[in-house]
Amino acid sequence: MPEKEARRVVARRKILHGANFTVYTLVVVAIVVVCNWFVNRNDHHVDLTPNKAFSLSAQSRKLVKGLDQPVTIYVFSNESGFQDQRDLMNLYSSASHYITVKYVDPNRDPGLARTFGVQSYGTVYVALGSRHIQASDTSEQGITNALIRLLKGQKLIYFVQGHGEHDLDGTGRDGYSQFKQALQNEDSQVETVVLMQKLQIPSDCSILVIAGPKTDYLPQEVSVIGKYLQNGGRVLAFLDPGVALPNLSKLFSDYGVTVSDDLVIDENPVSQIFGTSPSMPLILSYGDNPIVQPLARRATLFPLSRSFDVSTDNKPGVTLDQLCKTSSASFGVAHFNPNMHEVSYRAGVDTKGPLVVAVAGTLTQNGPGKEGRFVAAGTSLLAANAYLDFQSNRDLVLNMVEWLTSNEGLISIRPKAAQFQHLNLTASQMGGLLARVMIIPVVIILMGIVIWWSRR
Q: Taking burial as the number of CB atoms within 10 A of a residue's CB, which of 9, 227, 403, 413 is the most buried?
């Protein structure tokens, strides 16, 4: 081929290669532009952390999406503090157009800081109109709870005392200090009442809690609770097995709920995954009541529980819902008492499962405006310190509280504490890992040197 023709061929190839490169470059740029446009129009992210640390909880999303009026979140800090809070605050503002986040440096805007009463950096306030509430901390739980207080107001919850009920300030395994703190975090004021002294329930009582009495209530006390329910009161009762409660049981049987004198044993093999014993039923079956709707495919634990026989023929003005049921591998040990050391199924005596271990009731006998509600659970350990944070126990108990106060919009799965992931390695594993980390880059460098030398 003549030299002139060869040069033209080379030139055409260069032009073709250049054109191909230009086209490919334009295609890549176009793809990047389209992807950026799509991402900006559809702001989605994937949270791969086990505890969904970079996503709002179901409770927060439900609360925020239900807003119908503007809410402003004020973050009082400096520039570095703003950066620490932006990721969480962006989750709130992107979840609802009703939420606006403002970052305020108290030194640059001392007037606003004085209006809110800001004392230090790292303070967050949630404001609605002229009202504002300080978040207990800068976590999602603190901010969401402040929003709840701002929107819903405060509940006053009374725990009955005088019959060996759980200690609200007890920090041991059987104490209720964590339950009390959880209620206060959701802006409930917690008080105690001794019915046998005054035979009267305070008029400002939002919920009356019966927390695992060791002795039965007096007939007069039960009568007071019954009248409270009929006049629109709300009752949460934890009734342990092995305790004779004929008077309290009569209160619930009047509405079609029989408190069984038994101990529930569940031999469901699934519970072995969690390391629980048969006397601690693992609950995976729930009813249709709003309390348990968010708990689908989640587990709760009912340690040392009795069961309830729920009538299928509801009395006039009474609606009953079965909340939690054991598996078909369960049974109720009849006439249980704590002195029994070994239990096994006795045909014709014990009751085969599934068994109901929690029930809810709605009373509309006295007409509109006086709708009473009650929830009864077969164990008080459900809310004890040792078990409150087991799987979804906390959500179940707090959902009971929200349903009893007619705050169905707050029934959900709550924010979880942050989990820190640790990688535990032995000395030999650490040595092997370091060797691989060092060897791979060295091999790549050597290969590069060999290729360079051969081409040289």
A: 403
